[in-house]
Each structure stands twice: as C-alpha cells, then as structure tokens.
Amino acid sequence: xxxxxxxxxxxIGYERWQQxxxxxxxxxxxxxxxxxxxxxxxxxxxxGWYPEYLLVMEDDDAPLAxxxxxxxxxxxxxxxxxxxxxxxxxxxxxxxxPKRVWAVPYSPVTGPRLFTHxxxxxxxxxxVALYAALAPVLTQxxxxxxxxxxxxxxxxxxxxxxxxxxxxxxxxxxxxxHWFNKGYQSMEDYFSHFSSRKRKSARKERDKIAQQxxxxxxKLGPELTPEEVQFFYICYQSTYAKRGQTxxxxxxxxxxxVKSMAxxxxxxxxxxxxxxxxxxxxxxxxxxxxxxxxxxxxxxxCLHFEACYYQGIEFCIEKGLQHFDPGTQGExxxxxxxxxxxxxxxxxxxxxxxxxAIGNFCKEEAEAVREYHxxxxxxxxxxxxx
Length: 386
What we know:
By secondary structure, the chain is of the alpha+beta class. It has helices spanning 9-12, 14-21, 31-39, 83-91, 125-145, 157-164, 187-191, 196-211, 226-241, 251-260, 303-319, 352-377; strands at 2-6, 49-57, 63-72, 99-102, 115-116, 149-155, 170-180, 214-220, 265-272, 275-284, 288-296, 323-325, 339-349. This is N-acetyltransferase.
C-alpha cells in the first residue's frame, strides 16, 4: 500500500476518484462536491482552505481510498471550535496556523472521512486499520512542514475511540441533535408518539404556516430552475448578513451542484401567495437527509421550524430515509423530536506541552457534554415508556 498527495480533484481525476470510493452514495464523498467547491471560489486563495487530498493505492497503483484534508489558515467553517487553542499558542509565542483538518469543508456532518470501496459504511476492522495506518502519514506530512496540528472532524465514534487509545491522539466529543425514523408511516403517526401537550404544540406550529398564508413546496434537484437556485442563494446569504457576515459558498457552487449532483439535492421553498419568501437546502443519500443551509427574505412565525425540520422529517418518512442530520447546535430542535447525539473528533497536537494541556481540557469538557446530553434527553417530546 502507498499514498500520494494531490492539490485538486482534477489532479486525481474522476475515474480514479470513483474507483477509490466505489458505490457509496454519501454526498460528501462525491467527486462533484469537491469539484464544485474548487471551481467556484469556495476553496483555495482567499478562503483559508487549501486542498490536500490523500489518495491511497495498492502497490500496483489501483485506487483504494481518499482522505480529504485541507490546510487551514483560520478555524472558520469547521464547527469543532478550537479558537481558544489558537489563542493559547499565540500568547506563548507559537504559531497555531497553518494547521491541517481532515474534514468535509463547511459541513458539520458525521460520516466517513476516508472514502473507500472497501467498506462504504466504515465499520469493518479493515477500515479502522486503514485509518490507523494513515494517521502517522498525516503526522509526518505535518512535521515536515512544521504545522502545529491535524484534526479529524465529525468521524464515527468507533474510529475516534480506536485512535484515542493512543496518548498521541486526543478524542473530543460534542453534542448535536438528530432525528431517527422508527418506522413512522406519516406525520400524524409521528406526532402520535409525542406527549399530548407536545403534540398540540407541534400541530399548532404547523397550523401557523397556513394561517399566515404560507405554503411550502419540496423540489428535487432535477426539478430546480436557475432562478430558484438564485433565490435560495439570496436567502442563504441573508442568514449570514443578519450577523454581519458573508456566507462561505458561492452561487456558482450551488448552480453547478444542481447540474452534477441533482439526484441528491432537496430544496424546500416557502411561498406567500406566488412570491417566494424562504428556502432550505438539503442533501440526501439512500439512508440519510442532511440539512445544511437556510434563509428567508421576510420573517414569519414558525417558518424556520417548518422549512428546516418538519418538511425534512416528512420527506424522510415518505422516502423511507432512516436519519435526518439537520446541522449543528440548536436546542430548539429537541421539541421537534431531534435527539441529542454525541459527535466525535480526533486531534493530533505536535507540541507535547500543548497536547497535555488540550488533552486535559477535552476530558473536562467531555464531562460537561455528557451531563448536557443527559439533561437535553429528558426534554424530548415523546411519551415516556412505562
């Protein structure tokens, strides 16, 4: 087995990429996703994200797997927050950036971070062993260029625990809220599992949409027009503008995805009469829905809950999808039936002193996260088991 670094997906090539990843439907493993990021100013100069894809091959050059890594000059767009670590480095006269992240850019979604035809789901012993074999490759590449650290973000729990057995790697946990399909046949069936008070509250939220003269429409990628994507993009940027920021992704990125990944895109559009007023963009595969981007040009009561949560849940039930990852943070998701789950990351810190200090921080943080997980679990709207 051998490995080689590449600075763009084009250098690897579509054919080799597909040979490596096999038949996985995971949207964030697809060549088209990274190609759109690279070609439309979402990676590279001016973004702080510089691709370095690691292609793993057999000795005869047959592609085995791809690890998406990126050199970072800041910590934006990662959602595993290490700003305080960078501040500590600066206070002691050290450079934290550049660093390396092993991650899906701008996407706080748990999933495989090694895309391979050997095991698309990422649970075999062979797959875990491949991760463990590549970790020192990242470490060596970092040390050759005197980078401070590398960070494996939103990986599966069993992988984080396996790597975390070594004192060399730090295992960090955080909490998100995900929805799970327990065989629901319809939204009414789903709400029937809520307690009476919570069920009335959820129905009232959905009723408010019609009472305000709003209607929502779910459209798949092949049905979308450039004008609808353009409207979504205005909504997406409006969400950031309210915080005095600019969205990371370009309109051309989304327009290209509709051409290259249409079968994995869901857009929820909200209308007031014939006028679109809000939109929510999701990706999906044969198992999960991934809610990523949302915005509106006019504020309406409960529109966010409907466009970003209830419409996604309804889509999952209709399509038989088992899981809905709506993005990071947000305790307001709990009342809509999203359960607290742990998310996991692994961190290699080159400096032994900082590694010990950050390791202690991760352990203390984990205690608070576990308490938070337990507390929020008690707030779920479902009927209590007898």
